[in-house]
Write a structure and sequence with these properties.
Shape: globular
Distance between the termini: 23 Å
Strand content: 35-45%
Number of helices: 2
Strand order of the largest sheet: 4-7-1-8
Order of helices and strands: EEEHEEEEHE
Number of strands: 8
Radius of gyration: 15 Å
Largest sheet: 4 strands, antiparallel
Structural class: alpha+beta
Length: 107
């Protein structure tokens, strides 16, 4: 059985890599590398350790919202892709966990 991994990247939407948002750069690179898929989700609110709250609320302090990028693929594909992602994410958080695929159909 194939061991599936989920790569999750947490960055601020203002984070950039080579003149484009990190989340866009990661998704475009994942597509070029042939990964199974990637999704970027813009959060409505969040904070980091020793940081103010970033919120989409009109009265909020900042519009620099958190973005979560999720990729799921084989263990080998994620392992090969991970070093590049680590170079791209200056300030942020990267996690990898094992996942069980319960249902999958082409969209």
């Amino acid at each position: 059985m194939t061991q599936w991994k989920q790569l999750t990247i947490y960055v601020d939407e203002s984070a950039h890599w080579q003149h484009q948002p990190v989340y866009t750069a990661v998704i475009e690179l994942a597509r070029r590398h042939g990964l199974a898929g990637a999704t970027a989700i813009r959060a409505i609110e969040g904070f980091r350790k020793n940081s103010s709250i970033h919120t989409a609320n009109l009265l909020g302090i900042s519009s620099d919202l958190p973005v979560v990028v999720t990729l799921i693929d084989s263990e080998a594909a994620i392992a090969q892709f991970l070093p590049t992602v680590q170079q791209m994410v200056g300030t942020g958080l990267i996690t990898v966990q094992t996942v069980d695929i319960l249902h999958s159909t082409p969209l």
